[in-house]
# Entry
Amino acid sequence: MKILLTGVTGKVGGATAKALAAQPGMKGRLRAIARNPEKAANIAALGIEVVQGDLADPASLKSAFADVEKAFLVMPNGEEQLTLEKGFVDAAKAAGVKHIVKLSSIEAHHGVTAKVPQMHVAAEDYIKASGLAWTMLKPTFYMQTLFANARTIVGNGTIVVPCGEGKTGFTDTRDVGAVAAKVLSEPGHEGKSYDLTGPEILNFDQVAERFGKALGKPVTYVRQPMAAYREILGKFLPPWRADAVCELFTEEGVGGGLTKPTDTIQKILGRPATSFDQFIQDHIAMYRGQ
# Structure
Protein backbone atom coordinates (compact mmCIF):
# COMPACT_ATOMS: atom_id res chain seq x y z
CA MET A 1 0.00 0.00 0.00
CA LYS A 2 1.14 3.52 -0.80
CA ILE A 3 1.58 6.81 1.03
CA LEU A 4 0.18 9.88 -0.76
CA LEU A 5 1.92 13.22 -0.25
CA THR A 6 0.58 16.69 -0.97
CA GLY A 7 2.38 20.03 -0.86
CA VAL A 8 5.68 18.55 -2.05
CA THR A 9 6.71 21.75 -3.85
CA GLY A 10 6.58 23.58 -0.49
CA LYS A 11 9.07 23.48 2.36
CA VAL A 12 7.33 21.06 4.75
CA GLY A 13 5.94 18.78 2.04
CA GLY A 14 9.30 18.71 0.29
CA ALA A 15 11.14 17.93 3.53
CA THR A 16 8.69 15.13 4.24
CA ALA A 17 9.20 13.63 0.79
CA LYS A 18 12.99 13.70 1.19
CA ALA A 19 12.86 12.14 4.65
CA LEU A 20 10.55 9.36 3.48
CA ALA A 21 12.54 8.64 0.33
CA ALA A 22 15.68 8.21 2.46
CA GLN A 23 14.06 5.45 4.52
CA PRO A 24 14.73 1.84 3.53
CA GLY A 25 11.82 -0.09 2.09
CA MET A 26 10.05 2.92 0.62
CA LYS A 27 10.77 2.20 -3.04
CA GLY A 28 7.47 2.04 -4.91
CA ARG A 29 5.44 3.09 -1.85
CA LEU A 30 5.46 6.87 -2.27
CA ARG A 31 3.23 8.96 -4.49
CA ALA A 32 2.95 12.74 -4.67
CA ILE A 33 0.16 14.77 -6.22
CA ALA A 34 1.08 18.10 -7.82
CA ARG A 35 -0.82 20.55 -9.97
CA ASN A 36 2.30 21.03 -12.07
CA PRO A 37 4.49 17.90 -12.00
CA GLU A 38 7.32 19.81 -13.69
CA LYS A 39 7.70 21.86 -10.51
CA ALA A 40 8.07 18.61 -8.59
CA ALA A 41 10.90 17.27 -10.75
CA ASN A 42 13.24 17.23 -7.72
CA ILE A 43 10.71 15.02 -5.91
CA ALA A 44 10.45 12.63 -8.85
CA ALA A 45 14.25 12.46 -8.87
CA LEU A 46 14.05 10.92 -5.38
CA GLY A 47 12.22 7.94 -6.88
CA ILE A 48 8.77 9.16 -5.83
CA GLU A 49 5.88 8.73 -8.25
CA VAL A 50 4.52 12.19 -9.10
CA VAL A 51 1.01 12.41 -10.56
CA GLN A 52 -0.80 15.44 -11.92
CA GLY A 53 -3.76 16.46 -9.84
CA ASP A 54 -5.57 19.21 -8.00
CA LEU A 55 -7.30 19.08 -4.64
CA ALA A 56 -10.15 20.97 -6.29
CA ASP A 57 -10.60 18.19 -8.88
CA PRO A 58 -12.36 15.10 -7.42
CA ALA A 59 -11.50 12.97 -10.44
CA SER A 60 -7.77 13.54 -10.04
CA LEU A 61 -8.03 12.81 -6.32
CA LYS A 62 -9.78 9.53 -6.98
CA SER A 63 -6.95 8.48 -9.25
CA ALA A 64 -4.25 9.66 -6.86
CA PHE A 65 -5.77 7.72 -3.95
CA ALA A 66 -5.62 4.34 -5.75
CA ASP A 67 -3.93 1.77 -3.46
CA VAL A 68 -3.16 4.46 -0.85
CA GLU A 69 -3.23 3.59 2.86
CA LYS A 70 -1.96 6.84 4.39
CA ALA A 71 -2.09 10.44 3.19
CA PHE A 72 -0.33 13.64 4.24
CA LEU A 73 -2.57 16.70 3.90
CA VAL A 74 -0.64 19.95 3.40
CA MET A 75 -2.49 23.00 2.13
CA PRO A 76 -1.35 26.57 1.49
CA ASN A 77 -3.43 29.09 3.39
CA GLY A 78 -6.29 30.40 1.27
CA GLU A 79 -9.94 31.34 1.30
CA GLU A 80 -11.03 27.92 -0.03
CA GLN A 81 -8.70 25.95 2.22
CA LEU A 82 -11.37 24.38 4.43
CA THR A 83 -13.55 23.37 1.49
CA LEU A 84 -10.59 21.72 -0.24
CA GLU A 85 -9.46 19.92 2.89
CA LYS A 86 -12.95 18.54 3.48
CA GLY A 87 -13.06 17.36 -0.13
CA PHE A 88 -9.70 15.66 0.34
CA VAL A 89 -10.96 13.83 3.43
CA ASP A 90 -14.14 12.73 1.66
CA ALA A 91 -12.15 11.43 -1.32
CA ALA A 92 -9.72 9.63 0.95
CA LYS A 93 -12.51 7.91 2.85
CA ALA A 94 -14.27 6.88 -0.34
CA ALA A 95 -11.03 5.38 -1.66
CA GLY A 96 -10.43 3.30 1.45
CA VAL A 97 -7.56 5.33 2.90
CA LYS A 98 -7.00 4.36 6.54
CA HIS A 99 -5.00 7.24 8.04
CA ILE A 100 -4.72 10.99 7.37
CA VAL A 101 -1.90 13.10 8.76
CA LYS A 102 -2.77 16.80 8.64
CA LEU A 103 -0.38 19.73 8.85
CA SER A 104 -2.11 22.21 11.14
CA SER A 105 -0.63 24.90 13.40
CA ILE A 106 0.00 25.38 17.10
CA GLU A 107 -2.29 28.43 17.04
CA ALA A 108 -5.25 26.22 16.03
CA HIS A 109 -7.46 25.70 19.06
CA HIS A 110 -11.15 26.16 19.77
CA GLY A 111 -11.92 29.80 20.50
CA VAL A 112 -9.20 31.22 18.24
CA THR A 113 -10.36 34.24 16.23
CA ALA A 114 -7.82 34.42 13.39
CA LYS A 115 -9.09 33.07 10.06
CA VAL A 116 -6.37 30.56 9.22
CA PRO A 117 -6.25 28.83 12.63
CA GLN A 118 -10.06 28.75 12.62
CA MET A 119 -9.96 26.80 9.36
CA HIS A 120 -7.38 24.41 10.78
CA VAL A 121 -9.62 23.76 13.78
CA ALA A 122 -12.64 23.09 11.57
CA ALA A 123 -10.60 20.77 9.32
CA GLU A 124 -9.22 18.90 12.32
CA ASP A 125 -12.76 18.41 13.66
CA TYR A 126 -13.94 17.18 10.24
CA ILE A 127 -11.13 14.64 10.03
CA LYS A 128 -11.79 13.40 13.57
CA ALA A 129 -15.49 12.96 12.76
CA SER A 130 -14.73 11.07 9.53
CA GLY A 131 -13.99 7.76 11.20
CA LEU A 132 -10.48 7.67 9.71
CA ALA A 133 -7.37 7.31 11.82
CA TRP A 134 -5.72 10.70 12.18
CA THR A 135 -2.63 12.52 13.40
CA MET A 136 -2.35 16.32 13.67
CA LEU A 137 1.02 18.04 13.33
CA LYS A 138 0.89 21.52 14.88
CA PRO A 139 4.15 23.44 14.41
CA THR A 140 4.73 27.03 15.37
CA PHE A 141 6.35 29.90 13.41
CA TYR A 142 8.78 28.44 10.85
CA MET A 143 12.42 29.50 10.93
CA GLN A 144 12.35 29.42 7.14
CA THR A 145 9.80 32.25 7.14
CA LEU A 146 12.80 34.46 7.90
CA PHE A 147 14.24 33.73 4.45
CA ALA A 148 12.09 36.71 3.44
CA ASN A 149 14.18 38.94 5.71
CA ALA A 150 17.52 38.07 4.12
CA ARG A 151 17.46 41.14 1.87
CA THR A 152 17.23 43.65 4.71
CA ILE A 153 19.61 41.70 6.93
CA VAL A 154 22.18 41.87 4.13
CA GLY A 155 21.33 45.40 3.05
CA ASN A 156 21.08 47.39 6.27
CA GLY A 157 21.21 44.95 9.17
CA THR A 158 17.51 44.98 10.01
CA ILE A 159 14.70 42.48 10.48
CA VAL A 160 11.45 44.29 9.67
CA VAL A 161 8.26 42.52 10.76
CA PRO A 162 5.05 43.67 12.52
CA CYS A 163 5.29 41.24 15.45
CA GLY A 164 5.60 43.67 18.37
CA GLU A 165 6.88 41.90 21.47
CA GLY A 166 5.70 38.51 20.20
CA LYS A 167 7.82 35.47 20.93
CA THR A 168 7.68 31.85 19.84
CA GLY A 169 9.51 28.53 19.68
CA PHE A 170 10.69 28.88 16.08
CA THR A 171 10.52 25.50 14.29
CA ASP A 172 12.67 24.29 11.41
CA THR A 173 10.57 22.94 8.52
CA ARG A 174 13.11 20.15 8.07
CA ASP A 175 12.25 18.89 11.56
CA VAL A 176 8.54 19.04 10.77
CA GLY A 177 9.15 17.02 7.61
CA ALA A 178 11.17 14.45 9.54
CA VAL A 179 8.38 14.11 12.10
CA ALA A 180 5.80 13.73 9.34
CA ALA A 181 7.90 11.00 7.73
CA LYS A 182 8.05 9.07 11.01
CA VAL A 183 4.32 9.42 11.60
CA LEU A 184 3.53 8.25 8.07
CA SER A 185 5.90 5.29 8.09
CA GLU A 186 5.37 3.70 11.50
CA PRO A 187 2.41 2.75 13.73
CA GLY A 188 1.57 4.27 17.08
CA HIS A 189 0.75 7.85 16.12
CA GLU A 190 -2.96 7.40 15.47
CA GLY A 191 -5.22 9.73 17.43
CA LYS A 192 -2.30 11.96 18.45
CA SER A 193 -2.01 15.74 18.16
CA TYR A 194 1.60 16.90 18.25
CA ASP A 195 2.62 20.45 19.21
CA LEU A 196 5.97 21.03 17.51
CA THR A 197 8.42 23.75 18.51
CA GLY A 198 12.11 24.44 18.42
CA PRO A 199 14.19 24.04 21.59
CA GLU A 200 13.79 27.61 22.92
CA ILE A 201 11.37 30.52 23.04
CA LEU A 202 12.71 33.69 21.41
CA ASN A 203 11.39 37.18 20.72
CA PHE A 204 12.48 39.09 17.64
CA ASP A 205 15.02 41.20 19.49
CA GLN A 206 16.73 37.94 20.45
CA VAL A 207 16.41 36.70 16.87
CA ALA A 208 18.17 39.83 15.62
CA GLU A 209 20.85 39.36 18.25
CA ARG A 210 21.45 35.78 17.10
CA PHE A 211 21.80 36.89 13.50
CA GLY A 212 24.18 39.66 14.52
CA LYS A 213 26.40 37.28 16.49
CA ALA A 214 26.56 34.78 13.62
CA LEU A 215 27.22 37.44 10.98
CA GLY A 216 29.63 39.53 13.04
CA LYS A 217 27.69 42.76 12.55
CA PRO A 218 24.82 44.60 14.26
CA VAL A 219 21.36 43.37 13.34
CA THR A 220 18.30 45.20 14.69
CA TYR A 221 14.66 44.21 14.93
CA VAL A 222 12.42 46.96 13.53
CA ARG A 223 8.82 46.84 14.76
CA GLN A 224 6.97 47.49 11.53
CA PRO A 225 3.52 49.15 11.81
CA MET A 226 0.83 46.69 10.74
CA ALA A 227 -0.72 49.22 8.34
CA ALA A 228 2.57 49.50 6.46
CA TYR A 229 2.91 45.73 6.32
CA ARG A 230 -0.67 45.35 5.06
CA GLU A 231 -0.02 47.91 2.33
CA ILE A 232 2.98 45.94 1.10
CA LEU A 233 1.09 42.64 1.13
CA GLY A 234 -1.77 44.21 -0.79
CA LYS A 235 0.52 44.73 -3.76
CA PHE A 236 0.90 41.00 -4.43
CA LEU A 237 -1.74 39.14 -2.40
CA PRO A 238 -5.54 39.13 -2.72
CA PRO A 239 -7.32 41.01 0.10
CA TRP A 240 -8.46 37.91 2.02
CA ARG A 241 -4.98 36.40 2.04
CA ALA A 242 -3.32 39.69 2.99
CA ASP A 243 -5.72 40.17 5.91
CA ALA A 244 -5.21 36.58 7.06
CA VAL A 245 -1.43 36.94 7.04
CA CYS A 246 -1.69 40.14 9.07
CA GLU A 247 -3.74 38.29 11.68
CA LEU A 248 -0.91 35.78 12.05
CA PHE A 249 1.84 38.41 12.25
CA THR A 250 0.81 39.83 15.61
CA GLU A 251 2.15 39.44 19.13
CA GLU A 252 -0.60 36.92 19.89
CA GLY A 253 -0.54 35.14 16.54
CA VAL A 254 3.19 34.55 16.25
CA GLY A 255 3.53 32.17 19.16
CA GLY A 256 0.08 30.92 19.99
CA GLY A 257 0.60 31.91 23.62
CA LEU A 258 3.67 29.73 24.10
CA THR A 259 5.60 30.18 27.33
CA LYS A 260 7.93 27.19 26.98
CA PRO A 261 9.04 24.88 24.16
CA THR A 262 7.79 21.33 23.72
CA ASP A 263 10.06 18.30 23.54
CA THR A 264 7.86 16.49 21.02
CA ILE A 265 10.36 16.64 18.16
CA GLN A 266 13.09 15.12 20.31
CA LYS A 267 10.79 12.35 21.55
CA ILE A 268 9.67 11.39 18.03
CA LEU A 269 13.00 11.75 16.23
CA GLY A 270 15.33 10.67 19.03
CA ARG A 271 17.42 13.81 18.58
CA PRO A 272 17.08 17.44 19.63
CA ALA A 273 15.06 19.84 17.54
CA THR A 274 17.17 22.11 15.33
CA SER A 275 18.28 25.21 17.23
CA PHE A 276 17.90 28.71 15.84
CA ASP A 277 21.68 29.11 15.84
CA GLN A 278 22.04 25.95 13.74
CA PHE A 279 19.39 27.21 11.33
CA ILE A 280 21.39 30.41 10.79
CA GLN A 281 24.62 28.48 10.22
CA ASP A 282 22.93 26.16 7.72
CA HIS A 283 21.83 29.19 5.67
CA ILE A 284 24.61 31.62 6.52
CA ALA A 285 25.53 32.24 2.87
CA MET A 286 22.05 33.62 2.17
CA TYR A 287 22.26 36.01 5.09
CA ARG A 288 25.70 37.16 3.96
CA GLY A 289 24.35 37.88 0.50
CA GLN A 290 26.50 35.23 -1.13
User: Anything to note?
Assistant: The domain at 2-140+173-196 is CATH 3.40.50.720 (Rossmann fold).
